[in-house]
Specification:
CATH class: Alpha Beta
Radius of gyration: 13 Å
Strand order of the largest sheet: 1-2-4-3
GO molecular function: RNA binding
Distance between the termini: 17 Å
Pfam family, one: CRS1_YhbY
Number of domains: 1
CATH architecture: 2-Layer Sandwich
Strand content: 15-25%
Shape: globular
CATH superfamily: YhbY-like
CATH topology: Translation Initiation Factor IF3
Number of strands: 4
Protein name: CRM domain-containing protein
Order of helices and strands: HEHEHEEH
Keywords: RNA-binding
């Protein structure tokens, strides 16, 4: 799934003021990290991740791992060591951004 145009712009604007909720360090991409990311994105729909300086993980490596783990997680933006990811929540009570995206 790819989000383009106004929807992408809306999600980027919402993420601009967010602080990273997950940091990837020297341990890199592990099954535990992916499970934790899945929980966070299910609860929040839109999250920001920070890649620390001591990590050997490149943003594209994380995108590839996410596509294998869960293809519904969409990378919205990557700037330097920060990444913004989106996935529509399965529970209606956790849907905040997806409701707005439907109106755009």
């Amino acid at each position: 799934m790819i989000i383009k145009g106004k929807k992408n712009r809306y999600l980027r604007s919402q993420a601009a003021t967010m602080k990273p909720v997950l940091q990837i360090g020297r341990e890199g991409i592990s099954e535990n990290l992916l499970n934790q990311l899945e929980i966070l994105i299910e609860k929040n729909e839109l999250i920001k991740i920070s890649l620390l300086q001591n990590t050997m993980v490149e943003p594209q490596d994380l995108i590839d791992a996410l596509n294998k783990f869960d293809g519904d997680i969409v990378p919205i933006q990557t700037i330097g060591s920060k990444m913004v990811l989106y996935k529509k929540a399965s529970k209606i009570k956790n849907r905040k951004y997806s409701i707005e995206l439907e109106n755009i």
